[in-house]
Amino acid sequence: SLLPGMLYPRESESREVKSLDGMWDFVISPSGDALKGYREAWFADQLSKVEKVMQMPVPSSYNDITTSRKLRDHIGAVWYQRSFFVPSSWREQRVFVRFGSVNYLAQVWINDEFVTNHEMGHLPFEAEISSYLVYGGKNRITVAVDNTLLQTSVPQGKIIDTPVDNGTTHLQTYTFDFFNYAGIHRPVLLHTKPRIYIEDITVRTGLIGDTGIVKYIIQPAGLQEHETPICRVSILDAKDILAVQEPAYGFSGTIKIPFPKLWWPRGMSPNPGYLYTLKVTLSVANDSKVDVYRLPIGIRTLAWTNTSLLLNDKPIYMRGFGRHEDSILRGRGLDLVTVARDHELLQWIGANAYRTSHYPYSDEVLDIADRLGFLIIDECPSVDTENFSPILLTRHKDSLSELIRRDKNRPSVIMWSIANEPRTQLPEAGEYFKQVAHHTKALDPTRPITIAMARAVQEDKAGEYLDVISFNRYNAWYNNPGRLDTITSRVIGEAEAWHRKYNKPVLMSEYGADTMPGLHELPEYVWSEEYQKEVLSKHFIAFDQLRNEGFFIGEFIWNFADFRTAQTYIRVGGNRKGVFTRDRQPKMAAFHVRKRYYFLQKEL
Ligand code: GCB
């Protein structure tokens, strides 16, 4: 890939990590004068000297923390700033700053200097800042964050002028069904690397007979032409014991592990999610500094046919959810308590899979998925894609380049979702998705690709470029609300039609019903807990029949938990299709889903 590496900052004997999370100074740029901060160069001095600042926690979305409607619904730039100290000893190192995610546009200054910018939420970026720092002294970091979505951003939105009581105002509109939370959403980490360092690692694993195969490629950085590097790679098991006695040498190579412990998903092994550690050591002759990086890896194979997805040569059936990174007050900000609770609930309910709808989830979330053995459909941030243009195509491809660069080594990631509910009926959609698909395949031929489809089978123009067909459909909700008697035959009919048209494996990536916890009614009536349970049940009947037909590979309820959306009269505090509430307690249907998911686990 043409992008530099994006290895997660991990401490080692050669690397230090220092978190900049915590309270930052925060200012909203005035709505009448969006450029004020830039004009007055707010980054060039202490923000609190020129503006009235408030304290804003990082990581978090800024929207739901205060009582201000203006801040919740703000469009345009906000400014974050804090100070930090850098020890003198770091002068011998390279220093980087890494943002896990800033939504949507970020510009970063260190002291008076502009150091980097990044467009797109939910994906990390970093910059070397060695030459901007004061060593053994105080430094300042300033970040301007702009949440504006346009027709050329990923995802797309529109800014419209609209009349209000005292004139007109700009309004951000978007068609996707989740609140456009903004801010510094994931950790901000300072980290050091030696002068010569390991920039990237790519690992592919396989199995030949009883031998595990680990192929690796190391990308070094900082080497001078006359220097002779020594790159040494070894593999440790989960107990930190060498899995193979002899290390491998060189920037690329193959390591063979006899009788490896394979990475299995939940339910297919008593010990799912087994991880080894790939330990890489890089040094050069006559330089005492050695860089060390430890990457968790899982040994597994992945293959697919026109009817199934095979992990370690066994067909897999996925039972899970579409989810969101969303929680009360924090919005889309990384919250480890919520992350831990979600994975407890996913285990309690017997799920083995989820889709990172509708954007890449944090490194921290995927670390848990790797470790617990969840199967992940990893989705890029393109949702409701329309008005296809060359610039949109470029950004869309960029989103996949950045996603694959970040997640390529993860055993849990078994599929790339290159879009959610794009307008695939449009004539331009065919060529557009052909290009996105080719781009994705060129970056990673080892995983199948899919789109969560919303349009009708007959009119679709994108399916031929995919490996797996996923479809979202709301029978007895948006289509025929209240008509539970329409679900089973329609789901079966649609899944069969997709398979007939494209001869590829099919899964249902969304289905469900909005449900107010505590609302009960018999016979079942829309929005009641009984109705949600029955909608799911009718789908289960369809899935059981489809599984006998041999091409159906997974069922994903929409949604794991209730989540916040833009304000509209079809949403009560947000989307209520969760099987769990927004504060992560079960609705009635959760117990019902649990019975099915455990039954499926036993059967497989
Ligand atoms: C969909 C979308 C999802 C929505 C869901 C709904 O098809 O993919 O983002 O939240 O429907 O509940 O309307």
Q: What report would you give on this structure?
A:
The structure is a single chain. With 604 residues, this protein is α+β, with helices and mostly antiparallel strands. It is built from 10 helices and 32 strands. α9 runs parallel beside α10. The two termini are 38 Å apart. Bound molecules: (2S,3S,4S,5R)-3,4,5-trihydroxy-6-oxo-oxane-2-carboxylic acid. (2S,3S,4S,5R)-3,4,5-trihydroxy-6-oxo-oxane-2-carboxylic acid binds next to loops.
Short description:
By secondary structure, the protein is of the alpha+beta class. It contains ten helices and 32 strands. The longest helix has 21 residues, at 529-549.
Helical run tally: 10
What overall geometry do the principal axes of the alpha carbons give?
Answer: globular
Q: Helical proportion?
A: 10-25%
Average pLDDT figure:
97
Calculate the terminal CA-CA distance, rounded to whole Å: 38 Å
Sheet with the most strands, sense and barrel status: 8 strands, parallel, barrel
Strand order of the largest sheet: 25-26-27-28-29-30-31-32
Gyration radius over CA: 25 Å
How many beta-strand elements?
32
Ligand inventory reads: (2S,3S,4S,5R)-3,4,5-trihydroxy-6-oxo-oxane-2-carboxylic acid
